[in-house]
User: Fold this.
Amino acid sequence: PSLEQLASRALVSRGPSPMGRTYRVRSPVVATVAAALDRPATERDGHRSPAERRILHRRAAVVAEQRGRDFEEIAEHREAAGETEAAAEAFLQAALGAVRGGDARKVLRCGARALSCGLPVASNFALHAARIDAARWVGDHEGLARALDDGDAAAENDGQRALVESERGDWLRRGGDPAAALVHFDRAVALAE
Assistant:
């Protein structure tokens, strides 16, 4: 984030100064992050070791959590800090939160990031069900196929399997294969009974 982004999130406050714009910081952790952001990117990245950058991201994640920020922002800092398990969980929470907010693209983006950070496919049916809905909504056929496969792998009961079968049937029906769709619809009915 830039200093302007930190100001828009009320982590720093802007103020006029005879020398231009100034920023007042609200905590020592934010001061460390803000000082790093105030330097040019080449200097910032060139003079900090990877370990120092991980520490800064870890601190930024803590501040974001304390401020109740979006889980996606927290996850990005956790991932940059090398905390992939915590990042995966935060991306999962961001994806599920995006369902409530009706943001299909964020569901897909954060769901994919959660999985890339090592979230186990087999234990997160709610995520895959959300990805199925989101991919269908935005017309992402490849994403829908992956989400259906992941949902099938994660289904823990016949009700969940029935949902995946009916969604797969609908996908095939929309794709112009009504015979294959009927097979999946029949499976869905059998599983739901």
Observations:
- The mean pLDDT is 86.
